Amino acid sequence: MSQIWQTPAWPRFGYDHARIEPELARAAEAVGEVTGLVHGLAPDEQEDLLLRQIVQEAMASFGIEGVALDASEIEASVVASLRHRDRAAISRRSDAVAELMLTARQADQPLDSARILTWHRLLFTGMEVEDLGRWRRFEMEIVRSAAAGPGDVLYKAPPPHRLEAEMAQFLDWVNTDQRLPVAVKAALAHLWFESIHPLSDGNGRIGRALIEHVFARNRALPFSLSRQVERDKKAYYEALQAGRRERVGGHPDTGAAEIDATEFVLWFLRTLTRAAASARDEAGFILRRNQFFLRFAPVLNERQAHALRLLFEQGPERLAVGLSAKSYRKITKTSPATATRDLRALEAAGVVTRMEAGGRSTAYEIQF
Residues marked as binding? Predict the structure, then answer.
């Protein structure tokens, strides 16, 4: 069976405008709503949200490939980069990942091969990887699983001798094409790059960094897209496969051979809309959190403030569980008597209310 890059359609990616336009409008509205929310935040709140977004994007993009990162180290590295602080105490791997995530969002210079290959070196800092920082020198097949046999090949990428020319054509398009809506261009850039699969490893992570870069050329995404992708990796891989098919009958107007990327673009826009909805809730949560501490800071002692901040850091799901005397003692490392006194003081101040659910340890609902 011929691969898509072996057909006359390559690399002309097209899509069904009638099917795409409604999803594009929904995605644009959702992203615009989040962007407006973010612009309404104070500068320190915007920095907090940016930090969360970059850390989430790194964790999720690596997680899609089954690679676990230390969130606290990534956060420390991103903070150090954003504030130009000394990073000597932070592991080289976390620094490199942070640099990759941040430089992907820098769109003031054209994207070139050197930059992508630098990202590749950053991605595998301190690791032994074949063809590190250069285009791969071996054939690449995408299979169903590590134990897959010859009949389980999903896709075979272009051979090594074609990669330099393929990437030159791709990068020229990224840097010059201004016709497409930014979300559609980001989708096609990712699909095209993954179809070339020019690197020995890390193509997915670099491809998702490219999405960040394409958006940054217009306006950086104020949320993590990879976190939404990670929630349904199967659909992501299926969409990639579905977007590599030649359009039956060619282009609807000219009849020229064309790749029908409609299914992938649809998946991308719907994923973008869902990611924006989650980000809208998160931005609202940060705003409410800051208002909560602004309101109650005068009545909180050091232990109470520490416990509440820790719960807020864990997000709305953890807050919904409430705060028990047992968990308060564990967080603050204090005695039962002190914990009881602190919790009663919080209740009297209206910071928490006692939950009706019984049990051996009284639980309190946080009023935010």
Answer: 201-208, 236-237
